[in-house]
Amino acid sequence: MFTYQAPPQLLAGRRILVTGAGRGIGAAAAETFAAHGAQVVLLGRHGAALQRTADAIAAAGHGQAQAVLLDLEHAHEADYQALAGQLGTHLDGVLHNASLLGPRVELEHITPAEFARVMQVNVNATFALTAALLPLLRRAPNDASLVFTSSSVGRKGRAQWGAYAVSKFATEGLMQTLADELAGTRLRANSVNPGGTRTDMRAQAYPHEDPQRVPTPTDIMPVYLYLMGPDSAAVNGQALNAQ
Ligand code: NAP
């Protein structure tokens, strides 16, 4: 496991947006960032799920999270611009976490529509959201951080991981290209491979696995805290592993 001892108020005063914040790793990240002092913005396509995360944050005494509804499969340029307009003066961090697994079959058995859907959510939407939020990130008073979510199959291709694997390679490419463009600025971009983590997506990918044998989203939070906080201000263009 990535080890990092985060100070309790590591993210105090930081405003951080998390996509896919209604469940799984995104919900845990939002709650963890809030517990370390951040004001979090929860992005997702189901209001009830975002409300559950916001309620958990409030119940823990970690403030009021802002929820913004956006379906990354169907969002258009105007939706991203409207979202950026809702977010106030600046952002200090963005965690691109939302993703679709898609069919776990050989590439030849994936339809173009299924392939396009995974690429839309995992890559095109990540690009469009990043582009819309860069002006807000540039206005952060100190360092600011973009974290992209990869996978082990986004670093080495593997049979039957289909469009998902291709989308995670593209995510790494997006991160690396952006990181090179951001070099020398106060803004940085890095990726995290969470590794096998106890979520709905993991259960969908490995239906016969005993979930108790897999780390929880809370267990893998140290690398996310490290990348969102000032201790990683000089880290740019790196592909990190949560485990
Ligand atoms: P998860 O439990 O399936 O959660 C996926 C999240 O993405 C949900 O919040 C979901 O929202 C959101 N999402 C999907 N499609 C969306 C759309 N069209 N618009 C907005 N949000 C959408 O997955 P997870 O395991 O927490 O995965 C989080 C990240 O880690 C993903 O990028 C995944 O690829 C990566 N990852 C996970 C593992 C693992 O073992 N769990 C391993 C490697 C990488 P809804 O609730 O609305 O569906």
UniProtKB/TrEMBL annotation:
<comment type="similarity">
    <text>Belongs to the short-chain dehydrogenases/reductases (SDR) family.</text>
</comment>
<dbReference type="InterPro" id="IPR002347">
    <property type="entry name" value="SDR_fam"/>
</dbReference>
<protein>
    <submittedName>
        <fullName>YciK family oxidoreductase</fullName>
    </submittedName>
</protein>
<dbReference type="InterPro" id="IPR036291">
    <property type="entry name" value="NAD(P)-bd_dom_sf"/>
</dbReference>
<dbReference type="InterPro" id="IPR057326">
    <property type="entry name" value="KR_dom"/>
</dbReference>
<keyword id="KW-0560">Oxidoreductase</keyword>
<dbReference type="InterPro" id="IPR020904">
    <property type="entry name" value="Sc_DH/Rdtase_CS"/>
</dbReference>
<dbReference type="Pfam" id="PF00106">
    <property type="entry name" value="adh_short"/>
</dbReference>
<feature type="domain" description="Ketoreductase">
    <location>
        <begin position="14"/>
        <end position="201"/>
    </location>
</feature>
